[in-house]
Amino acid sequence: MKYFWDGLRDSEIHGSAPDEAVELTEAEFRVLIDAQARGCRIELDADGIPIAVEPAVPPLDELKKRAGATLWSNYKQHQQRYVDAEDLTLATVCAAQGSAKGAAVQQWVMALWSDYYQVRDRIDAAHDIEELGSINLAPDPENVPPYTIRELNEEAAAALAVQQNNQEETP
């Protein structure tokens, strides 16, 4: 089988190559195909020989933007996995009524976002790509709320029952 460059061309698949195509060994062809699969561009060098060119690394500011977006997404998904907007409202209402569980869940959410801002500050302060790359953009998977929303719902239902009982007893 013969391999040619005028775009990667396999003679058994594409047939004969144009006259200006560069013939490649199977090993050269495989190196270029593997490099292309890793995101490299294939270009011709000064002698017209195809070479793999690594993609340009985006500027640090662009990488920081991407890291910030990934960080936001990771933390938002982590919070929503345990406490969505309605659950947070429930926790806030329960906490306002003196619930220790509601207050604890509220504190958990606030601590999670405090961690987010600390990591965000590290992203903003990164001086180079290596420093940026060393920052963990995911929250600690072991960091879960101290109470489940089911426990808060049960507590809220019990508090509502007591409140309704008190209203019925008051003439």
Keywords:
60% helix; single chain; mainly alpha; 5 strands; 7 helices; 171 residues
List the SSEs and their pairings.
Elements: E1 3-5, E2 8-10, H1 11-14, E3 22-24, H2 26-37, E4 41-44, E5 50-53, H3 60-82, H4 85-96, H5 100-125, H6 129-133, H7 149-169
Antiparallel strand pairs: 1-2, 1-3, 4-5
Helix pairs in contact: 3-5, 4-5, 4-7
What does this 3D model show about the protein?
The protein contains seven helices and five strands; from the N terminus they run ββαβαββααααα. By secondary structure, it is mostly helical. It is elongated and about 100 Å long. Strands 2-1-3 form a three-stranded antiparallel sheet. A two-stranded antiparallel sheet has the order 4-5. The chain has helices at residues 11-14, 26-37, 60-82, 85-96, 100-125, 129-133, 149-169; strands at residues 3-5, 8-10, 22-24, 41-44, 50-53. Helix 4 packs across helix 5 (100-125) and helix 4 (85-96) crosses helix 7.
Terminal CA distance: 97 Å
SSE-based structural type: mainly alpha
**Element-level helix/strand string:** EEHEHEEHHHHH
Q: Nearest-angstrom radius of gyration?
A: 29 Å
Widest sheet: strand order?
2-1-3
Q: What is the strand tally?
A: 5
Poorly predicted sequence stretches spanning 5 or more consecutive residues: none
Helix content: 55-70%
Largest sheet report: 3 strands, antiparallel
